[in-house]
Amino acid sequence: MLNKEGLILELEFYDRGNRYDVNVSNHVNLICRKCGKIGDFMETAPFSSQMIEEQTGFRPEGMRFEYYGFYKKCRRRKKQ
Ligand SMILES: [Zn+2]
User: Fold this and answer.
1) From 66's CA, which of 5, 18, 24, 76 has a CA 20 to 30 Å away?
2) Rounded distance from Cα 31 to ligand 1 centre (Å)
3) Is the pTM for the entire model greater than 0.85?
4) Domain chopping of the chain, boundaries
């Protein structure tokens, strides 16, 4: 059930035009498990593509950070 919801959210996310290969700007997505709102938290990712390539040989072309939770209005009486 939860997995299904997660999948739907992900598809909606792609519909918005955010894709792995386009997402050059580092930011964190804040995804509400209740209303499905996806917010942006504009902070730089904790490590660079260059650092990853130097250490692993893998060259990332995009990245996505996601936090799942609840916005304030969706958090009422919800025990986390
Ligand atoms: Zn919400």
Assistant:
1) 76
2) 8
3) no
4) 2-74
